[in-house]
Amino acid sequence: MKILLSALIVFCDLFTTVNPAFAQTWTQTSAPITNLLWQSIVSSADGSQITAVAQTSAQPLTGPIYSSFDSGLTWTSNTLSPKAWIAIASSADGTKLVSLVRNGLGYASTNSGFFWNNSLPNANWYSVASSADGTKLVAVAGTGSIYTSTNSGNNWFLISGTSGMFWRSVASSADGKKLVAVNRRSGSPGGSIYTSTDSGDSWISNNAPNLIWVSVASSADGNILAAAPGGFNLGNGPICVSTNSGSTWMTNSSPILAWTTIAASADGRKLIAAALKADGNSVFSNSIFTSTDFGATWVSNNVPALNWSSVAVSADGNKLVAATIYGGIWTSQTTSSPQLNIETSSTNLMFSWVVPSMNFVLQQNADLIITNWVTLTNEPVLNLTNLNNELVLSPSNSSGLFRLISQ
Q: Fewer C-beta neighbours within 10 Å, C or N terminus of the chain?
């Protein structure tokens, strides 16, 4: 069945419809399960390419890297030898990857993982994040420091003043300028959140609640941030959200769980967070929660009681993927309905829509006759600062209709 999203342009007026639905039905993929502790998972902006890293349950805990190029239907083992992988990050198109070894090196790839080079020093790595174009990277280490790269991981630079903190997670805006990192204090409860607006050259501490932060996510523009506290029996708490790049933080109605991971759509409106299946003596049957209103309210997803370790989300928030400890990799897809926007660009009209997790094309019609729609052959350009597809057209002297239609 075709899915239509119409935009009526008459004297530059625009009419759009938006589908507010969000994922709740999950399907296990064919990714390997036996003895694999999936540690971290990433997705391209359109959700078509997924890459995950794992450790094994037996010493020396070295596991594989697997990639899927068809939204999780089939999986291929990577060329790197098994290692104790802990984290991975991806560019928007999935071609540039960086993966970290726990208490080891860091590896970077510029061809979807078919070839890797290592340039990061040995450290107790925990998390890594990438700009949309894959050139700017930031990596954090527990009881260590923050490192950044501006050339896709060929060279790394130690950021002064960041040593001695137990860094747990880091996230980046699409342009790589705005960063957010969370840590927990060694030997005492609580932790802090730091942000940077200059690609990691300098950092400031945020006025955030004193919780043990374990994961953080960012919108494409870096304005919407979400942080999750938790860890098994480590003083769990509610998810906190900032709408002003970390200047202020607000708690919300999220459950008090042993959160392990959180991710955000490009606009930050849609959030997904996952937790351990057990916290103390309690067992949670549903430990993935999603929000469609910047974290104000949360919905429990219909998932098995598993120890969820990592989540990722497409730019439009409609393709979700989650990794587990011993439970494989799961995906969820809801109908995409990208909003079609229009603005003037010099003497032209520029159409834009967030990168969808389903295939859409832009069509044009001169009147209201349904059968006269023509698919435009102009290829949209991906804006790497906001993860929007953009298409510039010369306006005609007459009114017209434009729509996005699924293929």
A: N
